[in-house]
Amino acid sequence: MKKIIYAIAAILIAGIMWVGCIDNFDNINKNQDKLYSTSIQLVFPGTVYRTMNLWGAMNYPRLLNYGRGVSVGYAEPTYGESDVNSYSSQFYVDVLRDLLQLETAYEGNPDLKNRLMIIKTWKAFVYSMIVACWGPTPMSDAMMTSPSKLEYKYDTEKDVYIQILDLLKTASEGFNPVKPNNTIDFLNPDPVFGGTGYPNIEKWRKFANTLRLDIALRIENIDRALSEQHAREAMAHEDWIISSTSEMVQPSWGNDDSYDVSYYYNRFLKNLTDQNLSESTYPRLGQYMFTYLQSYYDPRLDKYAAKPDYTYRLIVHDTINIVRKSDYSGLDTTLNVVAYHTVPYAPAPEPGRIPQGWDIAYDPNSLWGQGAQGTQKYPNPYGGLAKQGWAYVNLSFLKKNAKVVFMNWATACFLKAEAKLKYGVGSKSVQQYYEDGIAASFGEYEISGAELATYMARDGIKWGTNGKGLADYMQIWYADINGADSPLEQIIKQRWIAEYFNGLSQWTTERRTRIMNFPPFFYSGSQSTEGSNGRFDFIPERYIFPVNEQTTNGTEYYKAIQLLQSASPKGDPSSRWGDNMWTHLQFAKVNPGLADAEAKWTGRVVIYNQHALQNRYGKTEEDMIKIAQQEFPQITDTTGLRIYLRYSIEEIIGPRP
């Protein structure tokens, strides 16, 4: 972990320096007389920057926890009312207000059409985040249309999506990436794609059309006919869909501590030391993501997590084969042994404690006292791990000039695979799109073709196959991939893996499909979370509406609750007068885990295990040396294993089975 801390001070990689005028944005936005018709180069980068910071604030810690790929703190599904108020205010006042003014200024100007389409695209993107979190929301009658406007209606969830899709249709069809003879109709500089000039207009069009496909698939549970219509129209221009890493929507923060460094750097990295390092604040690789990656030997694990110093790593017991010369025959003999060694990654478990009403089983092989067996409970495999030993999120996601990957190339491929599967549209087969998605994700992290080929050949990853995954540390969940039974499962699970650190997209996709089917969050006692039974809660289904709406926009607020409850596939009008975290949004499927939750998650007996942590270095001593050598070239024999992996043989079980 010290390596991570020291590296923070050494980060000098240049970001996209569009944020050089960030110090002027506050003054610009306070000026009611600002000239939007000539100031997109000043105002729009500030809008993007504030969107990035708001995304970061929502992502860390709550949406990361909701997405279940990253764990922050105890991963409980709570949030404060003040947070919700702040998020809403920032969306509408700090972002959408300026976008609306810019849109109004450029509407009808044929010489600035690309600028207008850029604004419409970003506006649609921002509203797509809002509606995914809250459901019904003000859009057609939003509050920023007039500084004195206090009452504004909420649109239904479906109506918001219709407006978003219309914006994206207009934008994708309205962009003109061919440079005319006389124009300045592009961004200089471009805060999203970097640089300047007309080549970026094609990237903006791909952003708009790819987002349109994403939203079309998102609304399949609301209106399948409308979903299919927009999916078909988006796929009719398949060349307008993101198709390379350079086209990914991933603006970068900058390196200036005073103005533009990443939200995460400012939030917890800036003053981080080895002494104040905390597992409850520094995000860690989540157990479920780790178990998928480890089950299928996914090389992206090394890109997603940071390795701690080898002196702090978790020790596991493992069963391996060793070759030793027999004292009797003088010949080599292969033995099966129990060995102890460290592993490079210790993912954050869920939960961090045993739920209320559960118990830990006795280990029948344990010894205590006078040699009595089965008198000790199974030990927690993470017990006693130093805070420096956890698998923390890789610094690349958190550093000063980190990228915010709003939409990646892999997601675009998986969207096409899903559209082909459901609506039969596209120039390739479902399998080809699916494999393109995995290849795109590997390309994003610069992983070699040989590793990609090996990964793609594994059961569960290979198209149309089932893979038996490893278990979590309590053996209540398995990282299985049932591709032979459900092609959609393969697509969605690979999308979830590829969207690491994008909590909002992971959360949204899971509510829409319920493919991941994770266990709930568990508690060891009563919680303050509304609706909690003190033992377990599933991920929240939505954010509550801003609390101050009750007094400032009361009439429309209660109408919005009626819209929410009337359209919900699983409403909850009894809690918080209908404005609660557990009411499903209209786009979501009903969570199947709710049906038997009480019976399934009450009074269980836990058998701790280290299955997902074992065989990281293979199943033979020879393999351990070869694999560990990739990280520690000094390892050439068992002496090196003892030094760098703290390797020891504890018990000889017998000849190789």
* Helix-strand category: mainly alpha
Overall pLDDT metric: 89
User: How much helical structure, as a percent, in the residues?
Assistant: 25-40%
Approximate shape: globular
Largest sheet: 3 strands, antiparallel
CA(first)-CA(last) distance: 39 Å
Number of strands: 15
Instruction: Name the strands of the widest sheet in spatial order.
Output: 3-4-15
Uncertain residue ranges? 1-38
- Radius of gyration based on Cα positions: 26 Å
Task: State which percent range the strand residues make up.
Answer: 5-15%
Task: Give the helix tally.
Answer: 21
Describe the protein.
- The protein is mainly α and 657 residues long.
- The protein has a domain at 309-343 and 617-657.
- 40% of the residues lie in helices and 8% in strands.
- It has helices spanning 2-9, 22-30, 40-67, 81-106, 113-134, 157-174, 199-218, 224-235, 263-269, 287-295, 301-304, 409-423, 430-444, 449-456, 487-498, 503-513, 549-552, 554-567, 597-600, 621-629, 638-644, and strands at 70-71, 284-285, 315-325, 332-342, 359-360, 362-363, 367-368, 372-373, 376-377, 466-467, 481-482, 521-522, 536-537, 605-606, 648-655.
- The strands form seven sheets. The chain has a three-stranded antiparallel beta sheet, covered by helices on one side. Strands 1-2 form a two-stranded antiparallel ribbon.
- Strand 3 (315-325) and strand 4 (332-342) form a beta hairpin.
- Helix 4 (81-106) runs antiparallel to helix 5.
- It is globular and about 95 Å long.
- The model is unreliable at 1-38 (pLDDT under 50).
